[in-house]
Amino acid sequence: MDWLKRVGRALLDAARWVRRNTRQRLSPRGKLAFDWITGLVLIAIGVIGGFVPILQGWVFILAGLAVLSQHSRLARRVFERVKQAGRQARDRYRETHPKKN
Question: What is the model's pTM?
Answer without folding.
Answer: 0.64
